[in-house]
Amino acid sequence: MTDLAEGPAHAGVRRSLAYWNQEFQRIHSPILRYGFSVVSVAIALGMAFALQRYQFHDVELPLFTVAIAFTTWYAGAGPSVLAIIFSSACFDYFFTEPLYSLDISSSELPYYFIFVAWAAIVASFNAVRRRTEVSLRQARDNLQVEVEQRRHRENEIRKLNQELGKRAAELEATNRELESFTYSVSHDLRAPLRHMVGYSELLQRQASSLLDEKSQRFIQTILDAAKKMGNLIDDLLEFSRIGRAETKKAEVDLEQLVKEVVAEIGQDTKGRDIVWKIGALPVCHGDHSMLRLVVVNLVSNAVKFTSMRRPAEIEIGCVDCDKKEVEVFVRDNGAGFDMQYVNKLFGVFQRLHLPEQFEGTGIGLATVQRIIHRHGGKIRGEGAVDQGATFYFSLPNAQDAAERRANAQ
Amino acid sequence: MTKLARILIVEDDPNDVELTLTALKDYNLANEVVVTRDGQQALDYLYRRGEFNTRSTDNPAVMLLDLKLPKVGGLEVLQQIKSDERLKMIPVVVLTSSHEEKDMMRSYSLGVNAYVVKPVDFHEFVNAVKELGIFWAIVNEPPPGSVKK
Predict the structure, then answer these.
(1) By CB count within 10 A, which of A3, A172, A320, A350 is most buried?
(2) Domains of chain B with CATH codes
(3) How high is the ipTM of this complex?
């Protein structure tokens, strides 16, 4: 109710409720209530005497009943009992034989009882009616308050919705800006790079006989740097594209995907001694090309960081394959990393090795993390220096391969 | 020697023009090349307007089109060509720096014949231009009404 105090509409409701309550409220003070009872019976008595004077007879009973009814209505049950007793006494004393005595003759007794019973019935009807009316009014008041509250809440929701719409529009504008930014990066930054590389190569071709070894090395450095920058820009664009691209989700058989990727990467590692171990992998729900990128990145990382091992061992499998939440891992026996820097693993352009040791731009794991997060999954890495690394990723709604086969049958 | 078809290059960047011409020269494909520097000039050439009103009526055998051009953009040029009965048969190859899927989708939906992203690496660039030149200027049979020497 406290929040209702705000706003002019609520104050108005409160005022009108107070008015209703005041108008129909019983008299509060007990003395006044009982006084009211006595006074109304006295007035009825006076009127009965006055009417009797004008030769109207037998009106005293209805008059007393009216007085009792009024008392019940405005003063409540206790005063109404008093009114019944008081008016019975007055009726007995002034209007039944023997007059001016509280004795009741046996012939008047039924008449007297009927009066008391009648008065009691009127009083109780009145009380019931009043109670009903009070509870009805209360229900109506509650309803009114609730309606007000609901209107208030609706207003609030509308306000929040408007804010949300504004926020969405802002976001959309930012997104558009970002898109045009990446577009410029993609288009305008690459052109000068291409020229740097192109003209350096032309220079190399044209003047190779005139240049000494040092100058040749300088040109080569310019070339390498420009190419590296080209790769960085491409990687960054790819990374930002993954953030913006829509995911087209379908059933993806991870085992088949991994086998394809391993076969593909195996083509480029003909000279290497690599022992592959591929376990049973689940089927999951996701974007095929994005998940493929995850697997390619993790597997090619494993290949890259085991280049000094004879043999290199790369294992791809799944932890607790029979459970609902499965975790796929890619484990190698390569260079590994210091767990101290584990939080840097997935940063953009973060590298834990020197470029002379292992090539790369440092975007691969950032891309992997982004894809896994976009799928609502989790990724983590474990490792130790020179003892290999293991990367775990989980995807929601992954289904065990065996279970799937069982379902298919 | 095999007949060489005319190549129309639409490219605003002088460096890119030079590199493209160098690549074409390396493979003796450069003697029938017309270079226009923006979309307006390219359309003038195709419609034989302004400075090109005296040229022969033949169409180029292939058009290498950059997307980001001053005045009239590459996509507008493409749209214009592909909606014109007399020009729509000219094979158009978009040769651009843009990797953007949006540009690619738009180009293909407008009916582009090929979409090539200029590689940063010069060797790859030369190779790409060479392949394009050989394919479109020598291997491909251009539509009737194209220039062949």
Answers:
(1) A350
(2) 7-139 (3.40.50.2300)
(3) 0.75
